[in-house]
Amino acid sequence: MDNCDLSIDRAIHRWVHWSVRSLFNRHRIYHKKEMNKITEIVRELLEKKPELRDNDNLLMSTIWKDQANILNFFQRFESGKLHSPESIRRARQKLQEENEHLRGELYDVRQKKQIKVKQELGYKL
């Protein structure tokens, strides 16, 4: 291989590396924006409707009713156009951890259960 071939290989390698890194960064920024968006949606709902604080299924269905109808729900869900159940749950969990006024009646029960499970799994507390 001569120097020209090595230069071309290095250039291609740099371009691929830059492209992958750029794509990853764009995805990370998009994901962060989406998480911020779902966090604000969840915050607003938990403040307005206390019955959603202890019921993730009701929280998810309330959010999805605004994003889809019965005719296009599965299509939108499968294509990723609806917020994922895990993102909704994580947003609710984080908001309740940081904001006592958004906690439901089951928050303390879940926390105590978490300690018991950690002990059963052998974690040092």
Short description:
The chain contains 5 helices and no strands. By secondary structure, the chain is mostly helical.
Task: Set out the fold topology.
Layout: H1 3-48, H2 56-67, H3 73-78, H4 85-98, H5 107-120
Helix pairs in contact: 1-4
Task: Describe what this molecule looks like in 3D.
The chain is mainly α. It has one domain (3-120). The protein contains five helices and no strands. The chain is extended. The termini are far apart. The model has no long low-confidence stretch (mean pLDDT 83).
What keywords describe this structure?
mainly alpha; extended
Number of helices: 5
Structural class: mainly alpha
Rg value: 22 Å
Question: What is the chain-wise order of helices and strands?
Answer: HHHHH
Shape: extended
How big a fraction of the residues is strand?
under 5%
Question: What is the residue-mean pLDDT, rounded to a whole number?
Answer: 83
Please tally the β strands and state the result.
0
**What characterizes the major β-sheet?**
none
